[in-house]
Design brief:
The chain is of the alpha/beta class. 34% of the residues lie in helices and 23% in strands.
Length: 200
C-alpha cells in the first residue's frame, strides 16, 4: 500500500518538476498503486507462489511495490532519470537505471525472472522515431532469454499502438507462443509452452 508519507513526498516531487513528462504519476499515488495492484491480481499474483519479477519500463515502480506487497521479489528497469529514480526511492521500489535501445541486448546484470512485464511502453530509436516490428522481434528474443524455465513475459502495448502487433505475433511464432488476454500478450518460449500452460 501507499502510505500518506509516500503520497506527500511524491506530490512534492511533482511540484519540483512540473514539466516532467511523467509528472502525472506524482498525482493521485494511491490510484496509480491501486491500478498496479489490479493488474497484479489479474495476473493471479495474489495466489501465486513467490516469483522473481522484472518490470521493463517500470516508471516510478507502482507495479513493483504491488508485487512486493503480494510476496514476490520484484525489480524494474527504466531510464536513468532523476525523477524516476527519486520516485522509485520514495516507493521503495528497486529500479535499475538502464536505457532500452533498439536491437541492443539487455545487460547480463539483469538476472533471470519467472515473470517479466512491460506495460504501456512505446520504445523509441535514437532519432526519436518509434520502434517497428523488427525491433520488437529482436526485443522479444532477448526478453525470453531472461526468463526462468516455465516463465512468461506479459506485454501490454501502449495505446495508441505505434507498431503492427499482428505482424509481430506472426514473426515470433517460430520461437514463441503468444496467448492474448484482453490488452495483454502473454509470451512464452516455445520449448517451455508444453510444460507450463496458462491458468487463466
Amino acid at each position: 500500500m501507499i502510505t500518506a508519507k509516500q503520497q506527500d513526498a511524491l506530490r512534492l516531487l511533482g511540484a519540483d518538476y512540473p514539466d516532467h513528462p511523467m509528472v502525472k504519476f506524482c498525482e493521485r499515488p494511491s490510484e496509480w498503486y491501486g491500478e498496479a495492484l489490479h493488474i497484479a491480481v489479474g495476473l493471479d499474483l495474489h495466489k501465486s507462489k513467490p516469483l522473481c519479477v522484472l518490470d521493463i519500463g517500470c516508471g516510478f515502480g507502482y507495479f513493483i511495490q504491488a508485487c512486493d506487497d503480494l510476496g514476490h521479489a520484484a525489480g524494474g528497469i527504466d531510464l536513468p532519470d532523476v525523477v524516476i529514480l527519486a520516485a522509485a526511492s520514495i516507493l521503495r521500489a528497486e529500479v535499475a537505471p538502464w536505457k532500452i535501445e533498439a536491437c541492443v541486448q539487455l545487460s547480463k546484470v539483469f538476472c533471470r525472472a519467472d515473470l517479466i512485464t512491460t506495460f504501456g511502453v512505446n520504445f523509441r530509436r535514437e532519432d526519436d522515431t518509434y520502434w517497428g516490428v523488427e525491433e520488437y522481434v529482436f526485443f522479444t528474443r532477448d526478453v525470453l532469454e531472461h526468463l526462468n524455465p516455465g516463465g512468461r513475459w506479459v506485454l501490454r502495448p501502449n495505446r495508441p499502438c505505434t507498431w503492427d502487433v499482428g505482424k509481430w505475433v506472426d514473426q515470433i511464432e517460430d520461437f514463441a507462443d503468444v496467448h492474448i488476454k484482453g490488452p495483454q500478450y502473454i509470451v512464452r518460449p516455445k520449448e517451455s509452452s508444453d510444460a507450463s500452460h496458462e491458468n487463466h
